[in-house]
TrEMBL record:
CDD domains: M32_Taq. This is Metal-dependent carboxypeptidase. One of its GO terms (molecular function) is metallocarboxypeptidase activity. PANTHER family: CARBOXYPEPTIDASE 1, METAL-DEPENDENT CARBOXYPEPTIDASE. The active site is at residue 251. Keywords: Carboxypeptidase, Hydrolase, Metal-binding, Metalloprotease, Protease, Zinc. GO terms for biological process: proteolysis. It comes from Halocynthiibacter halioticoli.
Length: 485
């Protein structure tokens, strides 16, 4: 395992370069950073496909080993098989282009000009198509890319899940938007420094260990790292403190997953979250089922008044409705729980078309805007509210988006099981105490890292296979209460 541990350590260093690029690096350093990232990817790719790894794996085939060792070998084999299919030059070029693309995307987004980004996105899409062809070896391109984020899942399976969810989500949205009740909206400015101070306090309350991490700002919030160096970012807007607060809680969910993985798995293939769907289940249950619950928002209401004074909301019940206000907004990361999955479904469909070649990059804005107006009833007013809002495609993360909704589905299952196993949690949430809930998640999900498959992790934690039913029941009960449905 010494060779593998060194490879994992080098991967963490590469991740730190990415974190620095998004948070601290000067814009003029981007071209050099792209070359550095390409060099790191060349080294990592060469190690992952080293012929000795294949020989070691073959030598251990059929050996009498324990469950943990077998899980390690399963993940090493998966990584080796993938690496040997992708040419080293292609892997390095993807790293170089996507590193440079992040800065180009950010500038185009700030300038509200998709044309500035389109040529770079065309390169990214072409490279990922080439990679997908190498991985699929005659199979489906998109399914091949999906395995990087949710191993063992296909686009067809996800489409079935979305087809099951969409009718009830749309019906619930129509009932909500037809309600006579309208939650109060926040209308004043909220001090940026106070937002960050409160976010730090809430992060600690949810169990984030600042002795092994830090909180910074980024254009697009994210979590980075594993084990004993897990860093998070958030963003601030003077008139939208919830953007900062809930971005922080969301990323804390990701970070706590990584921090709580067994130290026995540190710098090994098991020392990371098993899949992005399970990862997202942790961020979403922290953010939504706990952080946006009636109990926790009663605590947050008091904290907001302490931090900002009169916020223009009468009481805790009204604040609960304000936090969970349903509206057809442009931005996925700011979307309410009803619209969020509809945002993901839009991206899922469009990125499949981009990878298959059915949609050209030049036609992406029109395709996005047409679909968005159809799904949300609102015309997109500018690129940063449309196809330039997310960083994912600039860095080549095709196949990532559907795992957000899969994470919501898993979070619904886990929330149901958690409350059954740990009665009385709401009384603790109302005091800002999430420790028993987060301990249950650490024990039943997070500590295992990559030891089990994603479906097995959820099934073991919940006592039954995952389905969309708990999530939909939770949404209908919660928003039925808020909107008097």
């Amino acid at each position: 395992m010494g060779f593998v541990r060194e490879t994992c350590a080098l991967g963490e260093i590469a991740g730190r370069l990415g974190w620095d690029q998004e948070t601290m690096m000067a814009p003029g350093s981007a071209p050099q950073r792209a070359e550095e990232m390409a060099a790191m990817e060349s080294v990592l790719h060469a190690r992952k496909m080293d012929a000795r790894v294949g020989e070691w794996l073959d030598a251990l085939e059929g050996a009498d080993i324990g469950e943990v060792e077998a899980a390690q070998l399963r993940l090493i084999r998966r990584e080796f098989d993938r690496a040997t299919k992708v040419p080293a030059k292609l892997a390095s070029e993807i790293a170089r282009v996507t590193s440079a693309a992040q800065g180009i995307w950010a500038e185009a987004r700030a300038a509200e000009n998709f044309a500035d980004f389109a040529p770079t996105l065309e390169k990214v899409v072409a490279l990922r198509r080439e990679e997908a062809d190498a991985l699929a070896q005659g199979g489906d391109r998109y399914d091949a890319l999906l395995q990087d984020y949710e191993p063992g899942t296909s686009a067809a399976e996800i489409s079935t899940m979305f087809d099951n969810m969409r009718p009830r989500l749309v019906a619930l949205r129509e009932r909500i938007l037809g309600s006579e009740f309208t939650p109060v909206a926040l209308t004043r400015d909220f001090d940026i420094d106070a937002q960050m101070s409160l976010s730090n306090e809430l992060a600690i309350g949810f169990g984030y260990d600042f002795t092994r991490g830090r909180l910074d700002k980024a254009v697009h919030p994210f979590s980075s790292g594993s084990g004993n160096d897990v860093r998070i970012t958030t963003r601030t807007a003077a008139q939208d403190p919830f953007n900062c607060i809930y971005s922080t809680i969301h990323e804390v969910g990701h970070a706590c997953y990584e921090q709580n993985i067994s130290q026995d798995y540190l710098l090994t293939p098991l020392g990371r979250g098993v899949s992005m769907g399970v990862h997202e289940s942790q961020s979403r249950i922290y953010e939504n089922q706990i952080g946006r619950s009636a109990a926790y928002t009663s605590y947050l209401f008091a904290k907001m008044k302490d931090a900002f004074g009169d916020i223009g909301v009468a009481d805790a019940e009204a604040f609960f409705a304000t936090v969970n206000r349903v509206r057809s907004g442009y931005i996925r990361t700011e979307a309410d729980e009803i619209h969020y999955n509809l945002h993901v479904m839009l991206r899922f469909d469009l990125e499949q078309q981009l990878i298959s070649g059915a949609l050209d990059v030049a036609d992406l804005p029109d395709a996005w805007n047409t679909r968005f107006e159809s799904d949300f009833g609102v015309a997109v007013d500018k690129p940063s509210n449309g196809c330039l809002q997310d960083v994912h495609w600039s860095v080549g993360l095709f196949g990532y988006f559907p795992t957000y909704s899969l994470g919501n589905l898993y979070a619904g299952c886990l929330n149901e099981a958690m409350h059954a196993a740990e009665p009385g949690l709401d009384a603790e949430f109302a005091k800002g105490d999430t420790s028993r809930a987060t301990a249950w998640l650490a024990q039943n999900v997070q500590q295992h890292g990559g030891r089990y498959t994603s479906a097995d992790v959820i099934t073991r934690a919940c006592g039954k296979e995952p389905s969309e039913a708990p999530l939909l029941a939770y949404l209908e009960e919660k928003f039925g209460r808020i909107y008097n449905l």
